[in-house]
Amino acid sequence: MTNINVDYQTIANNIMPNRGYEIEDFQYYTWQINSWSSLEKRITGPEFEAGGWKWRILLFPYGNKNQVGYVSIYIEFVDPKGAPAGWHSCVQFALLLWNPEDLTICVSHNARHCFTAEDPDWGFTRFCKQHKLFVPSKSENQTRSLIENNSCNITAFVRVLKESIGVPWHNFIKNYNSKKVTSYVGLKNQGATDYMNVELQLLYSIKYFRKTIYQIPTEDDEPVKSISLAIQRIFYQLQISDTPVETTELTKSFGWDSSDCNIRHDVQEFDRVLLDYLKNKMKNTNVDNAISRLFAGKIKRYIRCVNINYECSRIEDYYDILLEVKGYKTLSESFMNYIREESCEGNNKYQTEIYGLQDAKKGVIFESFPSVLRIQLKRFEYDLQKDTVVKINDRLEYPLKIDLQKYLSSNNDKSNPHNYLLYGVIVHNGDLHEGSYYVFLKPEKNDKWFKFDDNRVIPVTDKEVLEDNYGVEAPNVINSTNAYILIYIRESDIDFVLSPILDDNMPKHLQNRLDEEKVLCERRKKEAEERYFYLSIKVVTPAIFERYQGFDLINFYDQQYPLSEVPQIKVLKSETYEAFETMVAQKFGFPVEQIRLWVLVNRQNRTIRPDVPIVDHLDMTMDQVRIKMAQRQDELKLFLEVAKPINGKIFFPQTDENSPNIMVFIKYFDPDTQSLEGLCHLYVQELDKVCDIIPILCEKKNFPQHTPLKLHEEIKPDMIVDMNPEFTFQQSEIQHGDIICFQKALTEEEIQEHAVAGRIHDIPVFYESLLMRIIVQFKPKYIDREQKPEFELVLNKKYTYDDVIKHVATFLNTDPLKLRFTTLHQTSDANNIVIKRDTTQTLSEILQIDYLPESILLFYEILDISIVELETNKSFKVYWLGAVVKEEEVVNISLPKTALVNEIFQIIIKKLALKPNSKIRLYDVLHCKIRKEYDINDPIDKIPENMTLYAEEIPQDEIELGANDKVIQVYHFTKEPLYTHGIPFKFVIKAGEPFSTIKLRLKLRLGINEDFSKVKVVVVQSLSNAKPQYIDDNVILSDYGLTDELLGLNHFVLQKLEITVVSIWVGSVNSYMHSLALMVNGL
């Protein structure tokens, strides 16, 4: 191997981004591998030190966790068992696999992780594809491969970080407490409700808004039916709770079920709808106009003639500002663009009522800014080349403090400062279709920044709030995590906006609940104090062992098997062992001199066995006993040994280091009953032969004295080994607490008899069957529908999908082929991924079980059709529109994937009893705009699964379209064309028709009875970002030469928050993939 100079510090800086954390220690280590092809499946490298702790590289040359075809590489903390209680280390690290002769031939990955004793390794399961190790990369014009001459190097770069913010990040130690560390708690995610959680956390933290919410009258409301009360209760719980708060009452008040909570929505859209609803609820109350006072500013839109003294303008309220990202480096530059004037000249002159066509300047200017300013960054726009809406990840810098005075009208009073402080940043991670939200907030004046990410709340640095979310500057760098919404508070108003919450600010009915919660908190506090002063001790008795069926002495923790019921005793830590021993003797009804207690310890093979008896410690306190004999355990686990009097005397064998006595436990396996029986414990001597205990075992089971037996040692669940009868116990490596399991030696005839009966006939195979057992909890997927039971089943990991559905179907008394399962979301209690039917996969593979979690949970649903039909059909929920563009009926359609759209038309005609020759239009809608209209011969397989589908009978004026008439799309929006709502539709623009007549036809088409003058009609360019053109009544719209333009209806009608669930389902009316919209009464 050639020695080459390596600048490890420079490499580390290049492959590990600087995230602004203070570095406690930096180390690197290179593992030289010279025989790659002969490596074992799992191998660890030499140990090295970083941050005062030992580390090593963990390598799976052929992949880990069923990742065949990949190399898996991890960093591993060497001694998790020797780490002190509560140990953790925050580490930023990188792994570099490289050619020893050429460092430029390499592959690297970096990550951050909080290592703990419970979670001691982290890395990359798919570090590199195996076939790339031995072949030079053609894409990078390389002539050498990563591995040459069967050799390569793996370098670990480790930065141990100081916890300057006081919290280990990325993933949390198990006892992490948001409330304790940050004084705040998070909100639970119900599946895809992160957009709602960030908005609620933002509004909650604005204390003036919180006080306003508390003043909405809700005394007689029910939480699941009242949005206002549900929000009050969430805000109240955020104030007093020590754990993440549920939001299910709020979503139920929307009329949503669990499936609706799995649909992602835009946080800005949610904010507009929610605030407008609350604003309406506040009318004629003590807090009328409170939202406007907090969030509303005024803006003037004007057209000013250049050559004459004439201006047309209007002043209107705004609640947020949409600023461009693309093409601008800073927030100030984008602000200046927003108020930049446009020239109206040449063919675009302004038509005045008195002076005719005039050169003019058109623009907007701010008349005032609100106390709380919400800025939406235009991260989404239409891409002409891709013919779709794309996310703009470009870099846009925003400051911690900004002076907005220069964006105000010259007529405005500028004597008061307009300095604004950054208060919140809502971050979007992902693209248009898949993404998530979290929010950075500074809840108190001059306080720290915190990141609110669903149920997690952690302190963060200024860099994480700013630099990490500006976006990317380099065009080839892909980073879809960036700021989407900015919240600024006027500096002079911050004391008013963030004034403290007092008890008098909360409604009395919530105060009453607060009193109840205080009682509960006191009870919890008392329990916590008890945990501090008291020690919990579990005592395993011989009777418990005798009844136990399973691995080890008993089952303390493994949720995959029935847990053993073990008596638990609370004792003061200051209590002496002598007093405790007397207490145990009295509890179990034995003389104190007849009992001896052994400390149970966790062995390295994850079993729990007696280690040493407690002797000569009568004067020690129980806490001293725990520290001396079980230091790493928060509770003591003890085995109660009971001595039987012999000739009236009590005798316990010696068990010190010099004694040959060994205490072992005995289990008996009965193939007839397919069960284990705990017989007893007994003492053997090191130099005794294993066969010496056979007469004792025969006596225990009343077998003839010389009955042949087979003996096995139960080392751990997957290691049951034969015992050689001629070996001594010392040769068999038997120690205190080991378990010996025996059975009768069977004849060939007896073995055959058991095989015919389907019984297991020997101990190792029986233990293997126990290892394959798994308890699976089943819950109904839709909790708000017809009540279905929750239940548990003991299944086998080797069961196929069909085996599982048969067992579940038997329990539910239903057709197995109409069952479908969904997995549990990793970070919430919501259902996540539908499990597809696969007749070859085992239950273990379906659940991807490597290391068992605490519990296995599957959601089930009973479909209307078989899952076989479900997989071969494509199904839709189509909304049928009436003559006035309103949803009249829902048509459920299920057809083979090879069908054509014409078959959908025929089903609609038949179900709605239309005329056979009816002409129907079918179109899908994305973001409240028509995306595609389908032809009668289009295959239905081309219809995307997650699209909202509308169908209508084509209007007569479109069927009888004139030569110069034009069909155009019409859609609804509020204020800005991006803020869409409602149902889009097709509309005929007749040649030469005045716009005033067109408006009358629009009014009739929409079925609007009230004044239509509030609806502003604009022409919107569909393939550009040009500002929309508002249309006057005297215009002849057909003269515009319309090609690909749309008509936009700018109006705002929100009388009531309603929910419309648009379901596109595949194969069954019960297999929903919902698309949800917050809709408006009326348009």
From TrEMBL:
Highest taxon in the source lineage: Eukaryota
Statement: the UniProt record of this protein carries the keyword GTP-binding: no
A GO-annotated cellular component: nucleus
Gene Ontology molecular function: cysteine-type deubiquitinase activity
InterPro entries xrefs: MATH/TRAF_dom (IPR002083), Papain-like_cys_pep_sf (IPR038765), Peptidase_C19 (IPR050164), Peptidase_C19_UCH (IPR001394), TRAF-like (IPR008974), USP (IPR028889), USP7_ICP0-binding_dom (IPR024729), USP_C (IPR029346)
GO terms, biological process: protein deubiquitination; proteolysis; regulation of protein stability
EC number: 3.4.19.12
Domain USP: 185-491
Pfam families hit by this protein: MATH_2, UCH, USP7_C2, USP7_ICP0_bdg
Domain MATH, first and last residues per copy: 26-158
Keyword DNA damage tagged: no
Substrates-to-products reaction catalysed: Thiol-dependent hydrolysis of ester, thioester, amide, peptide and isopeptide bonds formed by the C-terminal Gly of ubiquitin (a 76-residue protein attached to proteins as an intracellular targeting signal)
Gene3D superfamilies named in the record: Apoptosis, Tumor Necrosis Factor Receptor Associated Protein 2, Chain A (2.60.210.10), Cysteine proteinases (3.90.70.10), Phosphatidylinositol 3-kinase Catalytic Subunit, Chain A, domain 1 (3.10.20.90)
Key words of the record: Hydrolase, Protease, Thiol protease, Ubl conjugation pathway
Annotated family: Belongs to the peptidase C19 family.
Protein name, per record: ubiquitinyl hydrolase 1
Organism (species): Gigaspora margarita
